[in-house]
Amino acid sequence: MAAYIAKRLLAAIPVLFGLSIIVFLIMAMIPGDPATAILGSYATPENVAKLNADLGLDKSLPQQYLIWLGNILQGDFGRSYALNRPVLDEVLERFSATLILAGTALVLCSILGLLAGVVSAVRQYGLADKAITVLVLVGISTPSFWLGLLLILVFAVKIRLFPASGMYAIYGGGDLPDLLHHLFLPALTLAVVATGVIARLTRTAMLEVLRQDYIRTARAKGLTERRVIYRHAFKAALVSVIPVIGIQAGFVLGGAVYIETVFQWPGIGSMLVNAISTRDLLLVQGGVVVVAAAYVLFNLAADVVQTLLDPRLR
Amino acid sequence: MSDTAAAGSAGRMHKPRKRGRPSTLRLLFNNTLATTGLAVLVAIVLAALAAPLLPLPDPDVTAPADRLLRPLAEGHLLGTDALGRDILSRLIWGTRVSLAVGLSATLIAAFFGSLIGLVAGYAGGRVDTFLMRGVDMVMAFPYILLALAIVAALGPGLINALYAIAVINIPFFARNIRGITIGLSRREFVDAARLSGKSSAAILFGEVLPNVLPVIIITMSTTIGWMILETAGLSFLGLGAQPPQADLGSMLGDGRKILFTAPHVSIIPGLMIFALVMSINLFGDGVRDVLDPRLKSGALTRPVARTAVAQEREAEPRRHSGSVLDVVGLNTQFHIGGDIYRAVGGVDLHLKPGECLGIVGESGSGKSVTAMSLMGLVPTPPGRITAGSAWLEEEDLFSVDDERIRQLRGADVSHVFQDPLSTLHPLFTIGDQLTEAIMAHRPMRRSQADEKAEELLRLVRITNPAERLKVYPHELSGGMRQRVCIAMALANDAKVIIADEPTTALDVTVQAQILSLLDALRRESNAAILFITHDFGVVSAVCDRVAVMYAGRIVETGETEVVLARPAHPYTGKLIDCVPVLGQPGRRLDAIEGRPPVVNNLPAGCAFAARCERAEADCREGDIPLAAFGEGRAVRCLHPLKGEAADA
Ligand code: SF4
User: Fold this and answer.
1) Domain extent for B525
2) At what angle do helices A45-55 and A61-73 cross, to 10 degrees?
């Protein structure tokens, strides 16, 4: 197993390389003089000259890439002139807030989605199935940023059950209950679409599995229907749903951009949106690289879990 | 998984469209949700198209005096925004922009994605690897993040947002189209074009593209909702449409600043995005469901735990008192899309303790359905037991309740199925599966069950049983797996073992070993065996008696030796001729000319008449009874063979 994980880690390296190339190329698309664009209103001649030297902007594109790659491998993502601090510090601080939000949303959508999908499959064409199917459709068609606003209106303004924004209360907050209190609405909003997708695919996977010969065998053995469904069918369905959860992690991380903006969650998504508006391009670059790398690692983890569950993959 | 998902959907779309297009359309309109979606979508699109013609106030004219009017205010049906602009007018014009942007992004993504997919799939080799690696890289980003990076580089703006959303959706098209192109480029018509000396480009765009087009359109219809949502999202963040230009997303974003004082300004455009995306999804789902062959065939319907037994079924009394199993007048039907398939049309059979009865027939003869009906293992839907009784000693299996059936399954009646790879659960060890079978009927500690499982493996002549308990099915050979299945069937001292083609998936030497194992075990344990097979050679090795089935009914039955030596029914004769003879491989069952009739529309008279050389006029009239034919023998034929060779 350890060998397998090592192998997967090695296989992730070219992907990370590819990611870095894409990010680099996108940044190379910046129209006009990059140093001026990056510095924006901080573009004094000295700053421009320094940045040109730092980034090697006077060299050829491949050379620039190597310099840039060398820098980020050493953890040097440059400096945010707008915030006047190293990009990496800001990114890591923001990313931890995003991880709390996205992680909670991912746990929520996995549990709810699997549950809804299984119920839906077991009660196929029944009332519960129809209700879930409609809810799923509504869920995946709802713009999450709009849903967030509606939830704020209802639960923060009308019945004042949850705070409308932020991660901690300004006065007297900072402990875990306070965090959870602030976390509930944004995490729920963020989980909605992914819940729908996971529920849908779980339903299909369960229905497909329930047709398999080994389910007939399980019944022929005289197992209770509950055991047939929740042990035999569910385990097999789970194996095909786990990679979907891995992919949904990407949508949840991306969706965090909206939710963090709506709920003013101090995560990397709202940081990116602000950085784009203020043209703090090094910050954008650093944020994108870190989140994308985290996503690659997460998918790797999903792969490993799938392999743990399915001996045929070992 | 994204691979399998893509492959799955690709495979689905791959299927040639059904010719019955009218019925497809009708199906679509029968789907209320899909029609509602279509109606809403058409209404929205028409309103957006007609925006310049509608009597609407100018969407950009500000009127500070009229700011933040609530909906239903005079002259402003949906109220006004913070600058006093008419929301209804802005909504319709904004919808126009959102639709245009979503559609353009879809078209761009479809164009480049399909191009990549076509070239990669057709060229194969290095080109394919290179292109698909690139696509994988793009997919390695969390979806919207890449769009943000692109917008960051190009600068905020509606057109840049459009490009960004298009780029991140290219991989979906590339993957889907590549899969189908690979399939197509191996087809004859492409080979023919290649031989005729056409250039690759001509083949790709002249021959392959037209066949791929429907898939491109389906993929577009499934992604356009997303693209509208995502472009609106970027505008909401202030990265898309810039004032004075407005789409639904930027309206929502503007309204957000005054959410608490004037919620309608943000709620209304959000509702419109929702209605738009929901209607597209409803319609798209409807289309997908109608085109999905799996739904039509019922392949995605969940079978219930036990075959349905028709209410109007009449139980039949037992006929053979000393028997352990006595099946009387069994009828099992499949109800598929208005047609009724009579898979089993009145079968009687009985088993004495320790006896082995073979049921022989071609595939589709109803032999497996007969066997699977007994313990309710025929999938419902579509299966249904409509008449008859199956007496297991004193109990009618079709009358007892579900819990009783569960208690009997795997205990008094156990099963061995055909393909031991698919019949064992791939994710549990042999030990797990064996002990589970034991403990389902005899509660005991796991360690005890483990011992018992080891004993069972020894019983079926598996060496190193303790080690084997820890392995997974895929780590064993086919023969080993089938031994495990047999061990499972013996776990609770069954009185009857139903063996459904247990040796068909195995190669010949292994087949012989398994047969002799079954035969030996039967003699040791005195279990009766109902042995389903298509192979008379196998019958002769293990069965005491044999029943030959054709088109859902028994056509001949008797002692194995007698039937083998002098078959009476012409069909039996042909089956026996099909037994592989040493040195004459290839003489298989499919050697019988013609096909068995479809059981939803059986001809009058003898079902075999169309393939029978002895058929005469009277064979095609009226029902032919299963008539006694000497001692313990019966045959359903008006002109039975009398000792002469079958194909004479
Ligand atoms: S009844 Fe007639 S058609 Fe049927 S098998 Fe006998 S001879 Fe052939």
Assistant:
1) 354-365+399-554
2) 90
